[in-house]
Design brief:
The chain is mainly alpha-helical and 291 residues long. It has a single domain (43-286), classed as Orthogonal Bundle (MetI-like fold). It is built from 17 helices and no strands. It has helices spanning 2-14, 33-39, 46-52, 57-74, 77-87, 92-103, 110-120, 127-135, 151-167, 169-176, 180-188, 193-204, 206-218, 225-231, 237-240, 243-253, 257-285. It is globular. The chain starts with a helix and ends in a 6-residue tail after the last helix. Belongs to the binding-protein-dependent transport system permease family. It comes from Cohnella herbarum. It holds the Pfam family BPD_transp_1. Residues 61-278 form the ABC transmembrane type-1 domain.
């Protein structure tokens, strides 16, 4: 069973690493990339310098880090809280219904899910705009997809709706492995529900939380491309353009393969530094890390 996963990682994660050399070669606009890997002239760190001095670099980096930091602060604890709430539900049938409803959006692609949200945000027929008008939050119909300042809240809310239930599975599994006698002893000692959660549940799943937190920190420069691409419009571009969408536009549509490979390698290097740094800080403060 493990062999399938190993083959997948080797084929899609390690084998493509040979192509990293194209970041240091002049292979932009090349028709035959395989030939460029071996025959294109070396150019050194020129593409890395070009990206850093690009007029869009500051905005793209701020959008990428800012959006992912907000998601780390809001979206990361959401599945943990939800898993704890689910574990406290005594009625098994109601518990299963809630889990099924919250798991379902995960299995819908961002294209379909995003299309539903876009229709709901429509100025003419969208239920969300109508609801906001009736509640008095807005005074006139407005296209939320065209508002740059509304883009980040939109991404955070939709990602929570789509991933909340699925993200809670691992934490629910960790909670179910806790010895029930700990809760019984705490109840006998007079501990209420919140004290049991604070002194038993959270410490018992802290290892799982730390591992996933460190992995989330290392992904601060990684964005959900499908999600951003669905909701990105020319009107909200100043807040929606991140490294992943920038790489797609410049690398694929404009055939600047070497330049965007350098951008991707820059992002991976920063992610590695964040992962190692977060691991060392966690080991020093909490006494545990990824390994």
């Amino acid at each position: 069973m493990a062999l399938c996963g190993i083959v997948f990682v080797l084929a899609f994660n390690y084998a493509p690493m040979f192509g990293i050399v194209i970041a240091f070669k002049k292979a932009d606009y090349s028709v035959n990339l395989m030939r460029s890997l071996t025959e294109a002239p070396w150019i050194g760190w020129d593409y890395f310098k070009e990206f850093i001095h690009d007029y869009q670099f500051r905005d793209i980096l701020l959008n990428t880090i800012g959006l992912n930091l907000l998601q780390l602060l809001i979206n990361f604890p959401a599945p943990i809280i939800f898993a704890i709430l689910i574990s406290e539900i005594a009625h098994k049938r109601f518990k299963k219904i809630v889990q099924s409803i919250t798991y379902f959006p995960h299995f819908i692609s961002w294209i379909v899910f995003g299309g539903i949200i876009i229709n709901m945000l429509s100025v003419e027929t969208g239920v969300i705009v109508s609801a906001l008008l009736k509640l008095g939050i807005i005074s006139e119909p407005v296209s939320l997809l065209g508002e740059p300042n509304a883009f980040w809240p939109l991404i955070i809310i939709t990602s929570i709706i789509k991933g909340l239930g699925w993200g809670s599975i691992i934490y629910l599994a960790a909670i179910t492995s806790i010895d029930p006698t700990l809760y019984e002893a705490a109840t006998i000692d007079g501990a209420g529900r919140f004290r049991r959660i604070w002194h038993i549940t959270l410490p018992s799943i802290s290892g799982t939380i730390i591992v996933f937190f460190l992995l989330s920190v290392s992904n601060l420069l990684n964005s959900s491309f499908d999600q951003l691409w669905v909701f990105q419009t020319p009107l909200n571009l100043e807040r929606s353009e991140v490294i992943d969408t920038f790489v797609y536009k410049i690398g694929i549509t404009q055939m600047r393969y070497s330049y965007t490979t350098a951008v991707g390698l820059f992002k991976s290097a920063v992610a590695l530094i964040l992962l190692v740094g977060g691991h060392l800080i966690s080991k020093k403060i909490a006494g545990r890390g990824i390994f």
